[in-house]
Amino acid sequence: MDMSAFCLVQTTIDDEKRAEEMAKTLVEKKLAACVQIATVTSHYVWKGAPAREKEFLLSAKARKTDFSAIAAAIRSMHSYETPEIVALPILTGDAAYLEWAFQATERGGG
């Protein structure tokens, strides 16, 4: 197994219930092996005005090859006009953990 086949896909949302639904959906569809949710404060500029909001950061451990499907799933559940959907590479990791992640995201035919 390629140790760099995985990434961490992140998004933020201002609704905890929606964050929980997104996490559950990504795991149930086997698009993510695990999704962690953390409460964060985001500072940003939106439509020319500074903003500061409490948000929920979702970090999903996923296969790089599933990024497009993950992004589509997040967009379909998201309330934001322009949601953050970014992937950060996992350069390497514990072999046993990555094997578990591989098995947890196996959807057949792959």
Task: List the defining traits of the structure above.
Alpha-Beta Plaits; four-stranded antiparallel beta sheet; 3 helices; alpha+beta; single chain; about 110 residues; about 30% helix; elongated
Level-2 CATH architecture = 2-Layer Sandwich
Gyration radius, in Å:
15 Å
Mean pLDDT: 95
Proportion of residues in β-strands? 35-45%
Report the end-to-end length measured between terminal Cα atoms: 13 Å
> Helical amount among residues, as a percent range?
25-40%
Oligomer: single chain
How many domains make up the coordinates?
Answer: 1
Strand tally is 4
CATH class, please? Answer: Alpha Beta
Would you tell me the structural class of the helices and strands? alpha+beta
- Order the strands across the largest sheet as they lie in space: 2-3-1-4
Task: Determine the CATH topology.
Answer: Alpha-Beta Plaits
Globally, the shape reads: elongated
Largest sheet: 4 strands, antiparallel
* N-to-C order of helices and strands: EHEEHEH
Question: Poorly predicted ranges (pLDDT <50, ≥5 residues)?
Answer: none
